[in-house]
Amino acid sequence: MKARIVALAACALLGLGAAGIAMAQQAVGSNASVVQTVRTRSTGEAALRASVVGGQVRYGDVITTGPGSRLAIRLQDRSNLTVGANASLTVDSFLVDTNSNPAGAVFAVGRGAFRFASGSGGQRRERVGFRTPTSTIGIRGTIIEGVVGPEAIELAAGEDIPLDLTDDPGTAALIVLVEGEIDLEVGGRRVTVRQPGQAVAISGSRLSRPFSLPPAIAQRFAARLPQNPGVPEGRPGQGPGQEDGPETRAGELSQTLAQVIQIAQNDARQQGLSDTETTRLVEERVAVAIAESGAGPGVVQEALRLITRDVVLPPASAAAVQNVKAIADTARARAPAAVRGAGRAPGRSTAPPTSGGGGGSDYRPGT
After folding, report:
1. 197-240 per-position pLDDT tens digit
2. What are the backbone dihedrals phi and psi of residue 194, each rounded to the nearest 5 degrees, phi first?
3. Which residue segments constitute the domains of the chain, with CATH numbers given?
4. Do 267 and 38 form a contact (C-beta atoms < 8 A)?
5. Within 13 Å, how many C-alpha atoms sit on residue 291's CB side?
6. Could you tell me the pTM of the whole model?
7. Cα–Cα distances in Å, from 119 out to 81, 93, 127, 155, 157?
8. Stretch 255-278: mean pLDDT, rounded?
């Protein structure tokens, strides 16, 4: 079978025209979480625009984050990429879906901190890679963290590492292996890192040997890339031991549902489903996700409102969301006044329903 691996430049060189370029611009993932100021400019757009939860990430996209900002991207193979504050990156190359492999991409990180967590569990080499200004990074079953530019110098300040990063701040980089294996190449020199907790420093055309990451640098990484990128720190009015309010839960549920919808859309496309069948599939997946969340009617209603406001959906998926929203509206209207805005329905478990068990979801897709 002929592999359909296409890049935008190849489309232009081969004269494939608009259809080929459209294929090259197929989404490689979607925004799972957007915190504070995140902006995207896609191919053909003159200016950056605000990024939204559920928005697609495509070949050629330029993404920037502002101070105190973060972005989490859910890739089509269920890998996750988190980008910290004051960062810039470009979806530099694109690999189109084949029957045996999902879409993939190479991300060029120009500045800032990032974390990548693979969805493969080490079973294959990833169809995702990274570039810094002077290096390329190939990965397998990996969790890696990296920081590029002046921030790399800030993280390494005062610590004993085998390479001076201050010589070339624009190309300075620290790459850390958390799990798995990575290959780094700079100027024809290649280094493989297999030991978790080891790092490599890069400056210009120089590449250090792998070294154990000093604890102080690890702590600075953690401060720039919190483990839960979808939850802003320092929520007003929330103290230790207090539960999140309905607004927070609705925002988090809307992010989860946006991911569910994106995955369902991809599955429907791969299976060649009709619009009607796609609507049914998305509706069922959304209903199951709501049931597993244990959210009450008020939270569900608000989460669905946020999706319809913030996410541009294809017609089939939009119809599915409207169907579920109608059911949620009815459920909230029927709920006792005391629980209409509550985070969870009375007596509702937060655990997913078991197969064949009772107490199913209040939000069932129509038959």
Report:
1. 899 999 999 999 999 988 888 888 888 876 543 333 333 333 33
2. -120, -10
3. 30-224 (2.60.120.1440), 246-339 (no CATH)
4. no
5. 20
6. 0.57
7. 11, 19, 11, 28, 33
8. 83
